[in-house]
Design brief:
It is a single chain. By secondary structure, the chain is of the alpha+beta class. The chain has one domain. It is built from 3 helices and 2 strands. A two-stranded antiparallel sheet has the order 1-2.
Length: about 60
Amino acid sequence: MTEDVIQSMSLNKILISILEEHGPLSVPTLKFLDAASEDKELVVEYDDELLVFKFSVRGKENEIV
C-alpha cells in the first residue's frame, strides 16, 4: 500500500503538505533555478513506526543533501 501512495504523489501534493506542516518557506532565486539540476533527485521514504513520510534530496554521489 505504501508504494501505491508514493507512486500516486504529485509535486503539488508534496509541496502543499510540507508548507502546511512548516509554514511559508523562502528560497533564494539561484537555489531555485539550480534545483532542476540533473544530478539531484527527490527521495521519498515512509517510516511505518512513526507513520510519516520523509522527503530528502539525493545528490549525484548518492549522498543525502
